[in-house]
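Hi support team,

I'm filing this because I wasn't sure whether my run with KG4 finished correctly. The job status page said complete, but I'd like someone to confirm that the output block is well-formed before I use it downstream. Pasting the exact inputs I used:
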Amino acid sequence: MTADGPLVLGIETSCDETGVGLVRGTTLLADAVASSVLEHERYGGVVPEVASRAHLEAMVPTLERACATAGVRLADVDALAVTAGPGLAGALLVGDAAAKALAVALGRPLFGVNHLAAHVAVDQLEHGLLPEPAVALLVSGGHSSLLLVPDVTADVRPLGQTIDDAAGEAFDKVARLLGLPFPGGPWIDREARDGDPAAIAFPRGLTGPHDMRRHRFDFSFSGLKTAVARWVEQRERQGEAVPVADVAAGFQEAVVDVLTRKAVLACREHGVADLVIGGGVAANSRLRVVAEERCAAAGVRLRVPRPGLCTDNGAMVAALGAELVRRGRPPSGLDHPADSSMPVTEVVAR
Ligand code: KG4
Ligand code: ZN
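And here is everything the job wrote out:
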């Protein structure tokens, strides 16, 4: 360990990215990512078995790349962290087994951490220590949650989540029906720049008065996806061209409107002055603009890590590991499980 804090290695394999990050304190030293996304393209979604095999092949080269970038040796590592869940079971097992093997070989403590808490903690690498409490909006292909975060290492409370599709999943499905490649989020983002977000009025899920009582901070994107599909089908039935840019812009606006409205409301109602947005969808350019505007209007400070840190990566796991070490939290046992449905309230696997 040096004066700047312990060197922490983080491993992430919950979905289709094999990530290895190296962090010292809140300083990012390396963030090596190997993605199997192209192998899933023709299926229109991540195929678990393909992802697991790709992790197995990418693990050692990605580890070596991270160490080379940071200019450190594995023997220099003070502690390890790995995503223990939630995620694809087989994919998680590859990272968890690799991390346990390294922890044994190096004789260093290992933290099996929650993927969602890691998405929040990663912001420390860019904007310094997290304000406490913060509200976090996590939006990706696998999750869409609003969290109250009094302490990212020990106290993460769910305020709401999607009751059907994740936000990124909706982007991917709508992109598919518009004939755009997978993953669809970045393509919709690009198409929407040439479209009129007000040209087609798509529904805002769970925002009516009744739903705002029962599902105040929950999300629903499956009705929106169906509305887009119906609209496109009708156009095609009438033999008319589908205005892809307008559909993309209208759909994106509906998602962004609901996400930002509920996130700012959560801050206001919980008396929280800081909002962190993470997950792959946080890369969305319109989400960033609208969140900025609405946070400014509500007096909420907004923290969004740069896009490369928003998507799945090992640096986020290392960032949470470093914070756990800094706070003196006990590591997980080597027998901790990889838990595909790890609850968000469980920051460290035991
Ligand atoms: O966090 P992530 O890399 O992986 C998980 O799903 O956990 O997120 C990937 C998701 C995909 O659904 C992708 O379409 C979406 O993030 N995404 C975007 C953008 N970039 C990635 N969605 C909207 N706009 C973007 N610019
Ligand atoms: Zn994620």
